[in-house]
Amino acid sequence: METAETKKVLIVEDHPDLRNILRRQIERMGLMVIQAKNGAEAIEIAVREKPHLILMDIMMPDVDGWEAARTLRSHPETQHVPIVAVTALFRESDLKRCFEDGCADYIVKPFNFEQLRQKVEEYIL
Ligand SMILES: [Mg+2]
């Protein structure tokens, strides 16, 4: 049953244009997309929908990506869902914090379709 199911990716991004670009790129990979526009929404949706992968923006108002990742790691429903930080941050300390807060990996903005596809396939295929 599981193998026939379309894999589901949760895109968490506060910027609408970038959210749309990500959505189109993920759909182009034949994957199902669900979306959240901030960290709080991401937690709620991830617990309910149990996506196979979460692409997590870091800089977002209120609940940022670090905090959302930490919460998702501590929640039994979502603790095993891989989180890939999608971020413009490139300081060593910021990326270190992504891993400390439970992200499995990161991709630095701006990225192209191939870079994103390779990263997504590492976790979802
Ligand atoms: Mg942002």
Structural overview:
Helix 4 (92-100) links the parallel strand 4 (83-87) and strand 5. Strands 2-1-3-4-5 form a 5-stranded parallel beta sheet, sandwiched between helices. Helices cover 44% and strands 19% of the residues. It contains 5 helices and 5 strands; from the N terminus they run E-H-E-H-E-H-E-H-E-H. The protein has helices at 16-28, 39-49, 65-74, 92-100, 113-124, and strands spanning 8-12, 32-36, 53-57, 83-87, 105-108. The protein has a single domain (2-124), classed as Rossmann fold. With 125 residues, the chain is α/β, with parallel strands linked by helices. Magnesium ion binds at residues 14-15, 57, 59-60.
In short:
With 125 residues, the chain is α/β, with parallel strands linked by helices. The protein contains five helices and five strands.
Q: Order of strands in the sheet with the most strands? A: 2-1-3-4-5
Helices and strands, in order, run as: EHEHEHEHEH
Which outline best applies?
Answer: globular
List cofactors, ions and other ligands: magnesium ion
Range of strand content = 15-25%
CATH topology, which one? Rossmann fold
| First-residue to last-residue Cα separation | 16 Å
CATH superfamily placement = Response regulator
Count of domain modules: 1
Radius of gyration: 13 Å
Question: What is this structure's SSE topology?
Answer:
Layout: E1 8-12, H1 16-28, E2 32-36, H2 39-49, E3 53-57, H3 65-74, E4 83-87, H4 92-100, E5 105-108, H5 113-124
Helix pairs in contact: 2-3
The chain binds magnesium ion (MG).
Magnesium ion binds next to loops.
